[in-house]
Amino acid sequence: MYRATYENEACAHILNHRLTPYNTPPIEPGIPFCCTLQEVIIVGNCADQVKCTEMSLDMFWMLQALEREPHDEAPGGGDDSFSRVAGKENPHKYLLYKPTFSQFMLFVSAGYKELPSGGALLLYISADGVFTDIQKRAGGQAYDFGGVAMNNRRDMSNSTGSNPSLLLNNVHQRKSTAGPPSTRDVNCLYPGDLYPLLRRPTFLIVDSENSSVFLGMRSLFGQPLVTFTGPVDVPTYLRDQPKRGSLMTLFLHSPLTAICYICNISEVSISLWDKCQAHVDKFICDAGRLLVRCGHLDRSYLDFYLDDFLRLLMLRFIFCSCTLRLHRNFKMNPAFQPHCHPPIPEDEVLTHPSLKRLVYDLACILDVMHAFHDDDETVC
Fold this sequence. Notes:
alpha/beta, transcription corepressor activity, SCAI, 2 domains, Protein SCAI, 14 strands, Rossmann fold, three-stranded mixed beta sheet, six-stranded mixed beta sheet, 380 residues
């Protein structure tokens, strides 16, 4: 999708997108501890997506975003703060590639059971959408508006074995549509299927063309719940390209790679990459300050904020939302935007002038300002 190259050299430089002491967002003071990410379930079930071994590209991106880069010693000769960050453990993960509904529930239940006190579960789903005939009727219901596809193969008795960490494989998944309004698709994962999980702190990420149905989920048990959903559509110029991975997931994996992708930049020099990455890091830090100082922010975000991984995902989501709200090809259509629930206040965070300014500065450095405003528009 892109390459970062040395000046005057043709070789590509491999970039690491795991969590390191250098890219961990700082913690704003005064936030009480609530929960940490302990269990992660990553589900991939897109029919037309690039895969590597038995893992879709979306799954790989999220796996990298939820791993720490191992360090034998602290950078810079022993800084204690770096040592503490590098020494933390990774959350336990289940990787489910094209699981059936029963397999999905089996491993979700296992992750739920293993949650310690103060632990949170992250559920990431990248899957084809399943739509129903009553999709456009007003009001959201747990089983009335479709969901996302699970695998429809019935005989999977030999796929799971006894190892709960097994990477599941299956036959090619085709997109399906639910039957008449009086019935439900047995191979569909509906929002209502996830409500039992909400008895514990849950961070839900859904990237699908029917992801919006999961925005209607509410915390019924007084536990923290945050839901991120990816765009349900993309502009024509991206729709016509081969589907390599989902857009919001790419932003959560590597914000700079994602902005290069939507601006049709396929190659940058290492020096330019480092300069742009500094602007992304500045955005992440400023977004963190705005988020925790926001007067109308739902408590669930603060409950998850002290966890390094969840904090990074929240702030990269803000970068994604702010960038797509400013890009000329995305900003006019709500279907091209990511969404979240509870909502993050727009004026105080998502459209804050200081964050918009940083996106515009980044566009100027990449020489793609034309993609973000018309000649007659005023840039703040």
